[in-house]
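User: Fold both of these, please.

Assistant: Here is the first one.
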Amino acid sequence: MDFIEKDNKRTVRSSSVRVGKRTYFFDVKATAGGDYYLVMTESRRTADGGFEKHKIFLYKEDFYKFSMAYDEAMSFMKAEKPDYFVEPEFPEVEEEQ
């Protein structure tokens, strides 16, 4: 098993999504016993230039019920508000040289 060393924790996989002033992180971590858990973090830039973070820890015994509730909520929103699920177009940013 390969680990990404990050904050002295065993991170197995990490991905992020940037949306405006917020970034969402999805970190799959491993316990000392080899069990996986998920840490979801919302990081938001504050007016003073710092960051405000909110975390949710999701453990293996909660995966099934969490995923069922998530899928149900997303299915409802997709049916009610399908335009929410169209990827927004952002203007291209010219790279500085």
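And the second sequence with its predicted structure:
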Amino acid sequence: MIRNVLVGTDGSRYAEGAARYGVWAAQAAGTKLIGCYVLDIRLLDGPFFARLAAMLGFAPATDFRAAAEPVLRGLGETALGFIAELARKAGVSYEEVINSGPVATTLVERAQRADLVVIGRQGDHAEYENDMLGNVAEGVLKRVNTAVMLAPADFEKPSRVVVFVNDKPSAEEALRFAADLSGGHRILVIHEGETRANAEKLLKGYDREAEYEGLTIPLEERIATLDPGELVVIGATGGTDHLILSQRTQRAIRDATGPIIVTA
């Protein structure tokens, strides 16, 4: 059961996409949405800003932090206000929090009280990064032990939920998560090997029907053919305190053109 959805925001274009997908997910699951903005202490306490503070005549450097922190907090309040307005219009229960700390670490700590974490694939510096994920998204994904949605910048309401199923326990968890999340949305189960019967049995317990398709090409190639309006749900191997991503899952994340959820 999905009881609450956590959305991390930095006010960037990708974060706005994550906010829209977070509102959609909370509405689809009939649950609460929590918006989280993190005051990045690395910006306030790092050596670059310490030197900048001295150059600007702030002495000691803590005077600069006292001046800069309200500005960052104001940016956070604006970013959270954007989510609040989306939630209000969608009729979704909403609360928000501003925390201080390293961004990825703080989001991971907050994620312990959430069933789904929604973050943008990239962040403030997307135009300067060529990797498939931004630093915060990668840091959260590697250290959290709950489901994570990686959202693109542009929102497109999911037309159906696509789940990959094989004989691994993590695939069963992905299918359960999709059944909890999808509400009235269609489900496509892409199955590998002799796993269709088990998938049908599981979904019957949720009183859900689905379309089924046998996997005939590499998974990442099939995911790359999906429409951006299709939400992918794929399982990761769960660790004791973090997700362990197989090479296949990493390639699927890389090649997804729309939102993708990685479950524990």
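The CA atoms of residues 166 and 192 lie 5 Å apart.
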